[in-house]
Design a protein that fits this description.
By secondary structure, the chain is α/β, with parallel strands linked by helices. It has twelve helices and 14 strands. The chain has helices at residues 14-32, 45-49, 57-63, 88-99, 122-125, 163-179, 194-206, 220-229, 241-255, 292-305, 309-324, 342-351, and strands at residues 2-10, 35-40, 69-73, 103-109, 129-135, 147-148, 155-156, 183-188, 214-219, 236-239, 264-266, 271-273, 327-328, 338-339. The strands form three sheets. The chain has a ten-stranded mixed beta sheet with strand order 2-1-3-12-11-4-5-10-8-9, sandwiched between helices. The protein has a two-stranded antiparallel sheet with strand order 6-7. Strands 13-14 form a two-stranded parallel ribbon. Strand 11 and strand 12 form a beta hairpin. Helix 6 crosses helix 7 and helix 8 runs parallel beside helix 9. The longest helix has 19 residues, at 14-32. It starts with a strand and ends with a helix. The model has no long low-confidence stretch (mean pLDDT 96). Bound molecules: 3-isopropylmalic acid and manganese (II) ion. 3-isopropylmalic acid binds next to helix 4.
């Protein structure tokens, strides 16, 4: 197999976790005799510091050419004061929308060996293995009009969804449910919001095309509680952009650290992969970050962009084994375990491949 991958190290701990994923990538290539060419581009605060726009044209061209993109993290407190149009978060949204990646897959699982890391009761979380499918290009994040009144006394955003926007992300969720436990939960606020009523009606109508999938609906407030009470009950969970943003962080608590969570954002022919954690500026440059989310995201590149399931599973089981054997980065370190740096952790995973 001969492929290309675009790397966007970005800010904070981004470059360190992307370097860790590259170590694992090289090990996979050796093991399976693949050739993967990488190209590194700049984005976020790193671009601003180089005197470039937050999402430079060269980076945009590389990211929209069809190869998968692995992003480390973006975010830099030095630029927090900028107006919204120039903010780093706006650059991240521009990256997602330029790539057309509307379906954000955020898996969350309980890890064997990390039972002490979850704030929930481990006997309730054990065995959890769910995926939140978050709509990524609509809703409040992109709805117009939006703004702040000139007198600073009020502000407004618009939540808007079309049938087509719901259908395309729901198709991904139904397909995923078919490949897993054949259960799909759609989360909305249809008792209050028109966008949610449209969402529920659209998803319900599509269920006829997927007779093998059992579809269920829950309101977002009830699901937020049920997810904490009983995470093992859920498998594929479909929801809109802001609900998914919030619920995927909550699901992360099941694992015990945001540093463990990978993600894949899929569009029609383009895909962006990123660990869910942010740039964590206070950890940057010290080789202490947890690269598991980035390494897990690399596994998702193999699974979703290159249809290489065996390679994806090899990475995931090497990762699980490293954790099971008690190696831990600082975010998860407790007595009785072996502390490792970010780069050591990557080498341990690579050796276990
Ligand atoms: C995430 C982040 C982003 C989001 C921010 C940084 C724009 O929280 O990827 O979940 O809200 O989508
Ligand atoms: Mn978020």
């Amino acid at each position: 197999m001969n492929r290309s991958l675009v790397l966007l190290p970005g800010d904070g701990i981004g470059p360190e976790v992307v370097a860790a994923a590259e170590v694992v990538l090289q090990a996979v290539c050796r093991k399976f005799s693949h050739q993967v060419d990488t190209r590194t581009c700049t984005i976020g605060g790193a671009a601003l510091r180089a005197g470039l726009p937050v999402y430079p044209d060269d980076t945009r061209a590389a990211c929209t050419a069809g190869d998968p993109v692995l992003l480390g993290a973006v975010g830099d407190p030095a630029f927090d004061h900028l107006p919204r149009e120039q903010k780093i978060e706006t650059g991240l949204l521009a990256l997602r929308s330029s790539m057309g990646v509307y379906a954000n897959l955020r898996p969350a699982r309980a890890w064997e060996g990390l039972e002490d890391a979850t704030p929930f009761k481990p006997q309730r979380t054990a065995g959890t293995d769910l995926i939140i499918v978050r709509e990524l290009l609509g809703g409040l994040y992109f709805g117009e009009p939006r703004g702040m009144a000139a007198d600073g006394q009020s502000a407004f955003n618009t939540m808007k969804y079309s049938v087509g926007e719901v259908q395309r992300v729901a198709r991904v969720a139904f397909g995923l449910a078919q490949s897993r436990s054949k259960r799909l939960l759609s989360v909305d606020k249809a008792n209050v919001l028109e966008t949610s009523q449209l969402w529920r009606k659209t998803v319900t109508a599509m269920a006829a095309d997927y007779p093998d999938v059992a579809l269920e609906h829950q309101y977002v407030d009830a699901f937020a509680m049920n997810l904490a009470l009983n995470p093992t009950r859920y498998d594929v969970v479909l929801t809109e952009n802001l609900f998914g943003d919030i619920l995927s962080d909550e699901a992360g608590a099941v694992s015990g650290s945001l540093g463990l969570l990978p993600s894949a954002s899929l569009g029609d022919g383009q895909a962006l992969y990123e660990p869910v954690h942010g740039s964590a500026p206070t950890l940057a440059g010290r080789d202490v970050a947890n690269p598991a989310g980035a390494i897990g995201s690399l596994a998702l590149v193999f699974r979703h962009s290159w249809q290489a399931e065996e390679e994806a599973r090899a990475i995931e089981s090497a990762l699980a084994r490293t954790i099971r054997e008690g190696y831990r980065t600082a975010d998860l370190m407790t007595a009785g375990h072996t502390g490792t740096s970010c780069s050591q952790f990557a080498r341990l995973v690579a050796e276990r491949l």
